[in-house]
């Protein structure tokens, strides 16, 4: 990891504080939903086994079947709430970041030689900040789920079936590795897109200034 990537990682970590508790809830609620999934699967297996092997009547199975339905609805509600909180956190982060960028640009003197190009400034404030939505609203919660849920499943299943539990615990560390490999390719494509947007935005801003001159 080079110095630029380290700086980007630190910047993203600092931005997470602007998401406040909404971001942490967006990460934590799907983990709770994953724990409920194990409970739901166990209850469903129990009611099916009692119905097929034990031949129990419907009245005896109804409480467990109701529990399965309640867990299904609860998991759907937690998932929807987590998505909403992730979007809310991303909106808060983007708003605070845009305010900071605008303040930094307005604080600069027009005579400074290190002023950013107009196209780069427009791209950073509009497009690149907007691209953070996918990272904070979807990628960050999804990566936490991918890394932690197998461990949760393994810890719950291990006392019941040591083979299945061991498989969960062994394969869990491989998930972040595959995510990193995919992320490297995505970063290269994102860098190319950002450079193209910066050039196009600069050209568009120059054309707008030229219209005032023509008038």
Mean pLDDT: 75
Order of helices and strands: HHHHHH
Distance between the termini: 51 Å
DSSP E strands, number: 0
CATH homologous superfamily title: ABC transporter type 1, transmembrane domain
Structure description:
By secondary structure, the chain is mainly α. The protein has one domain: Up-down Bundle (ABC transporter transmembrane region fold). The chain is built from six helices and no strands. The longest helix has 50 residues, at 58-107. The radius of gyration is 25 Å and the shape is elongated. The model has no long low-confidence stretch (mean pLDDT 75).
Features:
single chain; 215 residues; mainly alpha; ABC transporter transmembrane region fold; 6 helices; 87% helix
Itemize the secondary structure elements and their pairings.
Elements (H helix, E strand, L loop, with lengths): L2 H14 L3 H33 L5 H50 L10 H40 L4 H10 L2 H41 L1
Short description:
This protein is an all-alpha fold and 215 residues long. The chain has a single domain (17-214), classed as ABC transporter type 1, transmembrane domain (ABC transporter transmembrane region fold, Up-down Bundle), CATH 1.20.1560. It is 87% helix and 0% strand.
């Amino acid at each position: 990891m080079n110095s630029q990537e380290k700086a980007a990682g630190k910047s993203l970590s600092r931005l997470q504080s602007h998401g406040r508790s909404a971001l942490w809830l967006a990460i934590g609620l799907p983990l709770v939903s994953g724990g409920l999934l194990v409970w739901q699967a166990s209850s469903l297996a129990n009611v099916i086994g009692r119905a097929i092997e034990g031949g129990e009547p419907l009245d005896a199975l109804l409480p467990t079947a109701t529990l399965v339905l309640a867990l299904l609805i609860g998991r759907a509600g937690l998932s929807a709430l987590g998505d909403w909180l992730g979007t809310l956190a991303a909106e808060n982060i983007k708003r605070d970041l845009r305010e900071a960028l605008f303040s930094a640009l307005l604080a600069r003197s027009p005579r400074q030689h290190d002023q950013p190009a107009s196209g780069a400034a427009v791209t950073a404030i509009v497009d690149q900040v907007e691209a953070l939505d996918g990272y904070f609203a979807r990628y960050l919660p999804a990566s936490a789920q991918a890394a932690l849920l197998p461990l949760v499943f393994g810890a719950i299943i291990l006392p019941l079936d040591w083979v299945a539990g061991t498989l969960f615990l062994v394969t869990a560390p491989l998930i972040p590795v595959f995510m990193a490999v995919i992320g490297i390719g995505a970063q290269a494509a994102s860098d190319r897109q950002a450079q193209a947007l910066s050039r196009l935005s600069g050209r568009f801003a120059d054309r707008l200034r030229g219209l005032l001159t023509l008038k």
